[in-house]
Structures are given as structure tokens and as C-alpha cells.
Amino acid sequence: MRKMYLFFLLFLFAFSTNAQVTVQGVPRSEVKNITSKKQAKNSNFTMDDVVYWVGTGSNKAVLAIQWNDQKNPDALVWGFRWDGNATGEDMIKAIAKVDKRFYTLLYQGTQFGSAIGGIGFDLDGKGTVGLYKNNNTTYPLYPLDGIINTTAYDFDDYKAVDANDHWQSGWYQGYWSYWVKDSATDDFGYSGLGATSRQLVNGSWDLWNYNVDMNPQDISSTFTPVSVYSSQADFTKGFFMVNEEWFGHTNGSVNFVGENDQVYYRVYSEKNNNQAFGATTQYGTIYGDKFYFISKQESDGGDTQYTPGGRLVVANAKTMEKIAGFDNIGGGDGRSFVGVDQNTGYIAASNGVYLFDIANMQVGAVITGTGGGATYSGQIGNMIRTSQYVFAVKQTTGIFVIDPKTHTLKTTIPGSFHSIVQAKDGSVWAIQNEKLVNINPTTFATTEYAIPTTKYIGSWGAWNAGSFTASTQQNALYWINSKSEWLSGTQIVKFDVTTKTFNENFAAIPGQTGTYKQIPYGAALRVDPVSDKLILNTTESGYGAHYQKNWIHTYDTTGALIKTQTLNDYYWFPAVTVFPDVFDPILDSNLPSSLTVNSVTTVDLKNKVTDQDNIGANVVVSVKSISKNAIISAEINENDELVITPITSGTATLTLSFNSNGKVLDHTMTISSSTLATDHVSKVDLQIYPNPATDFVSLKSTDKVTNVEVYDLSGKRIELPLLNNQLDVRSLAKGVYVLKITTDKASYQKKLVKN
């Protein structure tokens, strides 16, 4: 009887011991007692063998992950540095945040701390990091800072989006066992506690070992150090893809396709602590050293992962570091942006064109006359900056021509246009449903060219920047044809600006077989300004989960498809491709550095700057400074000519500024002025009096005076009415002015002093 009692006690003890096996702090009666299984200390691997260290500090620990999934290499190792206090959870989260190949499934906030439900690693390097829950491929889950959260011990329900990744998760069909030691010479010991309770010390080792089918696994005899991960692309080598993103789930983003066709995802968010753009980011452009991202709304209320950035976000174009963000851009929704000069840009919105102070990062007032109309009948679309003007497309109204010197509306070209570009030769082109319209960049005269058989798809309803694009290497325009106002076609059209000929079958969009075909999305088509290759982005037809499929196609100048890249499955909704501004402008060495003038002299400045990723025709030239305004005046006229007017004899230094897409070159000229012009005028019976003047100036001449122009010494023209050969100068500030007087026989100039 006593023997039976002792046996019963031993049985109870054994049962009680088995019942107390814990997994990450949770008692698990169904889990085999793995604490008795001897574990090796893996003496072949030391801290000196660790390659990739995350964090900073004087303390060091090692994290090893062993998947036991028959994929090599299996057991991978990272290093972790810190100061102060740190837990095993801190180490996993720090590594997951920095190494974008590493991702975890966590159940945080339990009474036992955070449960590690799944661990993954992008083994094939494709960057496809995400999970499907219960095989729901319509709504994949993607990590933020390497973490996908759940609120239950449902770890068995998840699998990796990329089947080639390391991925193990489970609780009832398999689980992650936790092994720790605090010295390299010790054996690993099983920890029934979770990572939250694990206090690291200098020299700690943590090992997560997946028990497949609930069976304990030996610690691997081979550990493999993980190579250093770099999320930093060289943003001068490749191109950007600005994304609308998945409305109701994530705010706008930008990906970068870099060297060796590597795709870097959400590069702005990576650089700015998970910040994003606004909702439905639709446009991006680089001007100078800044990248301007425009979104329709300031934020997407459904995004719980990324911090919204506003309708306008400005970033450093080479580092992606945030400079500024704006929710309000004048009261309307965002459309596009164009750089005007070093200090000013224009924001196109659903309710007009707004000034933007680049120097001080401030949104300014609407340009008078550009507003009006409802959101979807009077919105502003694309804009371009020529050497003299800004052209902005307004829905149903036409094309505004804005004088960037005064920020005033100069004229409106009426018509129903979709988009506008500037060709290599400097000509301006707008597109309508079935025709191209050539616009003279200075006289604004128009010439129409009917598209022979196809149409251009409109983009005003749910506005996007459209596929209309121009080459900077050839005198050619491109766009994607359409079958109707809402349905895109399958061909890329080319228009030769020089010969005025159409090729409506220049290149074909791939993926046109099967039930679900590839279709262009957003702006879809752009031309690389340096290589002259065409970049086309497509998605899959069929709506819903089909929009997770996205491709980037590259065509050469003959229309041949030379490369196709497949993006990670996600609802990116690509909006527009943007190319980095890599090359600096170069000034023509034949531009004179000294000049002698004895009368009004013009110097042709057209195409005096070459820029590999810009066209010379839209380089903006301005007079930056004149050392001695009393000797000469100077201005740039509408023909991109420098007009120098001598006032008195002497020598002055004139500095010109050449702005190529926000990159500025200065050129200094020494101007020697002769008195010949003044002497010539004095011999003619032409007088102005009184001089100096306070109120009115009278002109007396034996010839008929037909016109008088007044200029200040910076070369700026001042409008003053001429009535009965008399000028009203009361509005002039005190100073020296130049009168250019035209008679029926000749032209003269006179100096006027205003008291």
C-alpha cells in the first residue's frame, strides 16, 4: 500500500511538473517538457563573428534566430548595442526596425508581456515582406518598424507573402522556444519567460528556436552572421515612383528604383520615422535641391501606421529628409507644383494657383484671376515654366499664361485642355481629346494638329498628371492612346515635333493576354531626361486585389521593350515617375566676359546653358546685379536677349543669373559705356524739361514723338502715360531713370533725374 502511495505521489509530481512548462510566460500543459533536453552552447561562434550590429552603447548582446524550415542559411545572428537597461523585447524590436529584411508577428500587452508569435527574414532579398492571415490575399498585412501586430494567440493563421522567405509562426501547431545565456562559455538554458521579462546584460545571448510540430529542436551547430542592411539608396542613380497609396489604409509614399534594379520602398518614410505624405499623393517634382510632393488631401483617416504629412511635403531631394509639410495650401486640394525662381514656386490646387515662398517655406496668396469654378470644373492641373512665363492648365477654361516677374495673369488661351509640355526646341504643346495644340511661347499664337485615329484619355474627373510627356533629347512628344474618355488604350503614341508626324503604334503595352490585362495607372508614362528611355508603370485590371500587381516597363528610343520589373504586391497605385536632377548646368564658354557699348546693345542668351537633364529653352535668365546703375541699365527681353542701355561714360560690372530647374549659374561681364549715345542725342533737336523734375516732364522735338519708355536703373520698365508730349512722373521714386524716346525718324535715349 505504501508503494502505491509513493507511486501516486511521483505521478502527481510528474504531472504537476509537466503542467508548469511555460512558453513565453504562459503555462502550457500540452507542451512537451523541453527543459530537460540538453542544448549545446555553439562554441564555434563568438561575438567577434557578428557582422551586423544595431544600436549604440557600451553593452553588447547577440540575437540568434533558428527557423528549422530547411532553408539555408538557417540560424542567423545579429548584434545589439545599448546603454542603460534593455530587454530581449527591446533587442528584437530594435533589429526589426533597422533591418528591413527582418519582421515579426507580436501579441503585445498581454499579462506576460509581448508574445513573439512569428519571425521572418527576407531570404531571397526581393523586399517582399508581409503576411497573409487565413490565406486572405486581398488584404495582406505589412510590417511597420518590422512589426505586424495581432490581438490573440492566433499565430498559426499566418503565412509569408513570399514563400521563399524564412517564416515560422505558431502557438498550437508549433511555437518559438526561447533560450538564453549571459556568457559565451555557458550553455543555452530554456527560458519559460517572455522577451519582455528578459533583462539583458553585457555579453547576453538570446536564441529563438522554432519547435516544428511542437517537437523540440536541437540548437544548430552552425550560426551565420547577417550581412549589414542598408536602406539608403543613391538617389542620383535611378528614378522615383510617387504613389497615391491605398486610400483608407495608408497615406501617400514614394519608392525608388535604384542601381541593379533594386527597389527601395517608402524611402521618405524610412528616412523620417514613418512619416508619409497626404492622402492620394498625385504629383512630385524636383526643383533645385528640393523634392515637392503634392497630395489631394492632407491626410488619410484610415492610416494607423504612417503619420500624415499634408497636402504639400518638401524634402531634400538627395537624402529624402523632411524640410516642411503643409496641410493647408490655400483652402483647396493639391494638384501640382512648378518652380518659378530661386525664391518662388507655384502650387496648383483645385481652387487656383498659389504662391509658395521657397526661401521661407510659406504658402502665399492665390494669383488673381486663377481661381473660380467648382472642385471638379475649375481645378488647375499641370503647369510648366518656360524661360519667360508659366503656363497652367485650368479645367474647362483653358491655359493661363502667368508673368512670373509680377505673378500676374497675362492672358488666357481658351479651350478644353488636359495637359501641357515643352518640347526640346522650346515650343509649347497642349493636348485635347483628339488634337495637339502648338502654342507660341511668347506670342501665344496657336496651331492645331488633329490626332489621326486615336484619342487622349482625360484625367480631370479623378485628376492625375496624365501620360502626356516630352523628351529632352529628341524633339518628340509621347502619350498613351485611349479607347474612350475613361478607358485607356494599349499603345504608346509618338509625335515628331519637327516633322509634325504621328506614330500611333510606337510601342505596345505588354500583358494583353488572358482575362486580367495590364493597364496604365496614374500619369503612367514619362521620359528619362538623360537616357531618353521611356518608363511605363502598369497595374492589373479587374479591380480589388488585382491592383496589388504592379509592373515597371522600360522602352528604348525605338519603342522596343527592354526591361520589366515587378513590384512587391501591394496597393501602391503609382501616380507619377520623377527623375533626379543629377547634372549641373554648364555655361557656354563663348559668352563674352567684357563688352563695350555706345548705344542700346542686345546679346542673344538663348541656349547659352547646357544641362543634360533639362532643355536650354526653359533656362531662366535674369539680371542679378549692376555695380554702377548710373552708368548702364540692363534687362532681359521676351526673346531671351540681354538689352544693355548706356547712360553715362564709365565702366560697370553686370552679373547675369542662369537658372536651370532651380540650379543657378552666375556670369559676370565688364561693360564699358561710351558717351556717344548721349552726344548724339544732344545734337538732335530733342529736349526734355524740366530735368531734374518733380511733377511733369515735357518733350520738345522737331520730329514727331511716337513712343516713350521709362526704365529704372535695374532695367525694369515703368508704365507712365504720355499725353500731349508730357509725362506725369509724380509716382516715380526719387532717383535716376532712362527715357527711351522714339520719333517718326529715329530712336534716342535721355537720362532723367526725379527729385
Description:
This is Por secretion system C-terminal sorting domain-containing protein. InterPro entries: DUF5074, Secre_tail, WD40/YVTN_repeat-like_dom_sf. Keywords: Signal. The chain is elongated, with a radius of gyration of 35 Å. The strands form 16 sheets. Strands 3, 4, 5, 12, 13, 14 and 15 form a seven-stranded mixed beta sheet that branches. The protein is mainly β and about 750 residues long. Strand 24 and strand 25 form a beta hairpin. It folds into five domains: about 45-225, Ferric Hydroxamate Uptake Protein, Chain A, domain 1; about 240-325, no CATH class; about 415-570, 7 Propeller (Methylamine Dehydrogenase, Chain H); about 585-675, Immunoglobulins (Immunoglobulin-like, Sandwich); about 685-755, Sandwich (Immunoglobulin-like). It is about 5% helix and about 45% strand.
